[in-house]
Amino acid sequence: MERVLVIGGARALGAAVARRAAKDGYDVVVGARDLAAADALAGGIGATAVRVDLQDESTLAAAARRLKDGIDHIVTTGSAPHDVRVTELDRDRLLAAFTAKVVGPMLVAKHFAPVLRPAGSMVLFSGVVGWRPRPGSLVKGVTNGAVEYAVRHLAADLAPVRVNAVSPGVVDSGAWDRLGDRKTALLSNSADQTFVGRHGEADDVVDTVMWLLRAGFVSGETIHIEGGARHKSA
Ligand SMILES: NC(=O)c1ccc[n+]([C@@H]2O[C@H](COP(=O)([O-])OP(=O)(O)OC[C@H]3O[C@@H](n4cnc5c(N)ncnc54)[C@H](OP(=O)(O)O)[C@@H]3O)[C@@H](O)[C@H]2O)c1
């Protein structure tokens, strides 16, 4: 049975990946900075839980020690958004955003390289904002763009372990529920920005992540799951 660690696995898209992987017969480890939340999800899907905080390298080292018997795949969904105009940048939040999406996954690779099995893979999360600049998109856009380069270079470094990214468009993952009444407008506007005329669903992303775990001849790639949004003019 292949083992997959899902970082950010207690919530939203990470939880959706963890649930599907468990259903598909993987040995799932839910990694989250909130161990109680990871335990709660893991208990319901026959998985185990481990504390992983992408902002704290010691938790990455400890998780790799816990999983020293070997791991096949790591999916890392973490993000720490800082969606402000350039004049409002906060240095700590800027660094936290890069750590969640780019530096953290690179350190995950550092600590897990000795335990990742050769036929295994990593999947990082980018996002469409990397390709659609607008006022306020600076941090999300640059971190998402950096993920595309991170997977190319990690793929070279970790080979034959494969490293890829998914880049979702706007997806109703649960994360947007915090917008309350404004969520419907966001999803509807995002649908207008695609060729396919709809927003993304969690299953659109999960289907692609599960395919990447098995896609043995795909490495260093970013797969865009956004209905053509990068190509459609405003
Ligand atoms: N949903 C969309 O429309 C969309 C669009 C484009 C790209 N994406 C990308 O897809 C990924 C997942 O997004 P989402 O929709 O599931 O919602 P999200 O709220 O962005 O999910 C982020 C996940 O990262 C975890 N996380 C944050 N900081 C962490 C840390 N220091 N250590 C470990 N985990 C940490 C969160 O866990 P906690 O519960 O601990 O906060 C949560 O599980 C993100 O990278 C996001 O940028 C999403």
Protein architecture, described:
The chain is α/β, with parallel strands linked by helices and 234 residues long. 43% of the residues lie in helices and 20% in strands. The protein has one domain (3-225): 3-Layer(aba) Sandwich (Rossmann fold). It has helices at 12-23, 35-45, 57-66, 91-112, 138-158, 182-192, 202-214; strands spanning 3-7, 27-32, 48-51, 71-76, 116-125, 162-168, 171-172, 200-201, 222-225. The chain has a seven-stranded parallel sheet, with helices on both faces. Strands 7-8 form a two-stranded parallel ribbon. Strand 2 (27-32), helix 2 and strand 3 form a beta-alpha-beta unit. Helix 1 (12-23) crosses helix 7, helix 3 packs parallel to helix 4 (91-112) and helix 4 (91-112) packs parallel to helix 5 (138-158). It starts with a strand and ends in a 9-residue tail after the last strand. The protein binds NADP nicotinamide-adenine-dinucleotide phosphate (NAP). NADP nicotinamide-adenine-dinucleotide phosphate is lined by residues 7-8, 10-14, 32-34, 52-55, 77-80, 100, 125, 127-128, 168, 170-171, 173, 175.
